[in-house]
Amino acid sequence: MSTIEANFDGLVGPTHNYAGLSEGNVASLNNAQDISNPKQAALQGLAKMKALHDLGLTQGVLAPQERPDIATLKRIGFTGSDSQVIEKAYKQAPGILASCYSASSMWTANAATVSPSADSLDNKLHFTPANLTNKFHRSIEPNVTGNVLKAVFNDDKHFVHHLHLPENEHFGDEGAANHTRLCHAYGERGIEIFTYGRYAFRKDMPAPKKFPARQTFEASQAVARMHQLTDNDTVFVQQNPDVIDQGVFHNDVIAVGNQNVLFYHQQAFLNEQGFIEEVKRKASYDVHFVRVLDEQVSVQDAVDTYLFNTQIVTLSSGEMAIIAPMHCYHHAGVKAYLDELISQDTPIKAVKYFDVNESMKNGGGPACLRLRVALNKHELAAVNPNCLINDERYGKLTAWVEKHYRDRISSQCLADPQLLVESRTALDELTQILNIGSVYPFQKD
């Protein structure tokens, strides 16, 4: 049965701003309090989606979260009308208000972990929303993320939706940003690689010292159990604590895989040799391990350009292409490395560069913006078609952004209750364009 891998990108929300909320994410911290451009950010994201569609790939879109999150503000004691809640929070706890305005759901690599039906014992496609417990501004996402995923993949004959893991740091789960899958073909049984930063129940094991490790071993194992994966088809590997302390907050900032290619930095994994040997032992096909050395690209340059937070996609020709941010193009050393890479004996034969600067400034590259979902023809037919990008839908979504989004948001704008009205109006219209129903709390109140 034919199977494709679709990319579902997060649509940048109307309140996209730079609040510097993500400790351990160097770009996020460095650009805190800059003026953001939500309209440009959303259009940049949509342009990338349309470009991948034009390359012949199946491209989907996921709706953003409702922001500001008034329900969370009320839950922690701010009272009154919605505008009064915003006013009180801005005066008494501006940091909390900024967290409740965050548009970080745009990075759907953190939305969930996805296991294709080819891998699971029940032959169904499994979704588990990430609980994102390490950061308050992201920990308030999972319920709506689950609603959105169920609205897009709404057929229990093919899809299984799990509740996110317990909301505790012991089960800190960051979704697909710490998960990749290797396979010969998308429809064949693959190897799912779960990368974790620390053990929650073993204090004698290595852990980073400067920045937090957001994914735990225990969370990764729990997701694998829920998705009905076997030991022969899973590999658990610890991320190198030293690179976490250098700003590699997720594994997808230092490694990325696609089919039989694993593209990674030599410092990515704590026990690199043992990891590689396990993958080779469990794979029934040849795997191309594209190992980048320190002298080719330093960890710092990888973090600055997001060389590994790129997408690797398989084109209709069977060759692979890297979808990279313009930061890679403008960095002489990284550009030279990529030029050399596509001439080597690997399936990667092209690099395509995209301007996603608004996302990059907040700490997310092309790979952060997408959730990969392998779908056979029956599963693809069961996907909500209104959430798949084509020329008409791209036109509708760009017109929607042009109509509703601001081109400038500063920290002072967060005190403006009109931004809430604008955001809700936009999202209500979006749910109609995508035909996903009432996925937001304000639509049910």
What is the average of the pLDDT values?
A: 94
Tally of separate helices: 18
What would the CATH topology be? L-arginine/glycine Amidinotransferase, Chain A
End-to-end CA span:
44 Å
The residue ranges in which pLDDT falls below 50 over 5 or more consecutive positions are none
> What gyration radius follows from the Cα positions, in whole Å?
21 Å
Helix content: 25-40%
**Biggest β-sheet: count, sense, barrel?**
3 strands, mixed
What number of structural domains do the residues give? 1
Find the structural class using helix and strand composition. Answer: alpha/beta
CATH superfamily: Succinylarginine dihydrolase
Number of strands: 15
CATH class descriptor: Alpha Beta
Shape: globular
Label the CATH architecture. Answer: 5-stranded Propeller
Spatially, the strands of the biggest sheet line up as 2-1-15
Question: Approximately how much beta-strand content do the residues carry?
Answer: 15-25%
What is this structure's SSE topology?
Layout: E1 3-10, H1 26-30, H2 38-54, E2 59-62, H3 70-75, H4 82-92, H5 94-101, E3 112-115, E4 125-129, H6 136-139, H7 142-152, E5 159-161, E6 179-182, E7 191-196, H8 217-226, E8 234-238, H9 241-244, E9 255-258, E10 261-265, H10 272-282, E11 288-292, H11 299-305, E12 311-314, E13 320-325, H12 326-330, H13 332-341, E14 348-354, H14 357-361, E15 370-376, H15 377-382, H16 391-404, H17 417-434, H18 441-444
Parallel strand pairs: 1-2, 4-5, 7-8, 10-11, 13-14
Antiparallel strand pairs: 1-15, 3-4, 6-7, 9-10, 12-13
